[in-house]
Amino acid sequence: MVLSLIILVYFLGEAVSDTFCPDTWVADRGSCYLFNPDRASNYADARQYCSQHNGHLVVVNDVHENKFLKDFLRRLKPMGWWIGLTDELVEGEWLWYPKNEAPEYKDWVPGEPNSNGGTLDEDCASMYLDDYHHDYQWVDVHCNQIHGPICEREAGTDGNSGGGIIG
């Protein structure tokens, strides 16, 4: 009985901490996410937007987080969405911004990243839905393209948000 109560309290505590996000942010597994298709911009402006809202462009850590993001994006306007992965510093060395860590989990479209066959400077990563049915897999694109930001912050962190969620 006591063990069952401890387990129940543990799971309720996890659920409560996992759901404490500011208004307009969406909670999942200890993180809060802000999706704002109305703030579509280039990569640098998307990073700034997330920073202004006490977050950063999303860092996709595993298949579960990637699935959550894809499921949510399917309910929004079909477009490209910025993630925090870039090879701006060293071509071909993809790192999560702001951590500067190589990704352990990846969901690149087959053949990506490719800098468009080496002809373009495609240094930023996007979750992209296109006519080829890539269903929000990752592609490398030019950082000046216009995509929506996916911001992330730890659940329960301080700060005010803004922006909006559609969905």
Task: Characterise the protein shown here.
- With 167 residues, this protein is an alpha+beta fold.
- It has one domain (2-154): Mannose-Binding Protein A, Chain A (Roll).
- Helices cover 23% and strands 21% of the residues.
- It contains three helices and eight strands; from the N terminus they run H-E-E-H-E-H-E-E-E-E-E.
- Strands 1, 2, 3, 4, 5, 6, 7 and 8 form an eight-stranded mixed β-sheet that branches.
- A hairpin with an 8-residue loop joins strand 6 and strand 7 (137-141).
- It is globular.
- The protein starts with a helix and ends in a 13-residue tail after the last strand.
- The model is unreliable at 1-18 and 159-167 (pLDDT under 50).
Topology, pairings included?
Blueprint: H1 2-19, E1 26-28, E2 31-35, H2 43-52, E3 56-57, H3 63-73, E4 81-86, E5 95-96, E6 124-128, E7 137-141, E8 148-154
Parallel strand pairs: 4-8
Antiparallel strand pairs: 1-2, 2-8, 3-8, 4-5, 4-6, 6-7
Keywords:
167 residues; alpha+beta; Mannose-Binding Protein A, Chain A; 8-stranded mixed beta sheet; 8 strands; 23% helix; globular; disordered N terminus; disordered C terminus
Summarize the structure.
The protein is built from 3 helices and 8 strands, in the order αββαβαβββββ. With 167 residues, it is of the alpha+beta class.
Rg estimate, integer Å? 17 Å
The share of residues in helices is 10-25%
**Could you name the CATH topology?**
Mannose-Binding Protein A, Chain A
Mean pLDDT reading: 83
Q: CATH superfamily, please?
A: Mannose-Binding Protein A, subunit A
Described by strand count, sense and barrel closure, the largest sheet is:
8 strands, mixed
- How many helix segments? 3
Outline the low-pLDDT stretches.
Answer: 1-18, 159-167
**Whole-number count of domains:** 1
Q: How far apart are the termini?
A: 41 Å
Structural class: alpha+beta
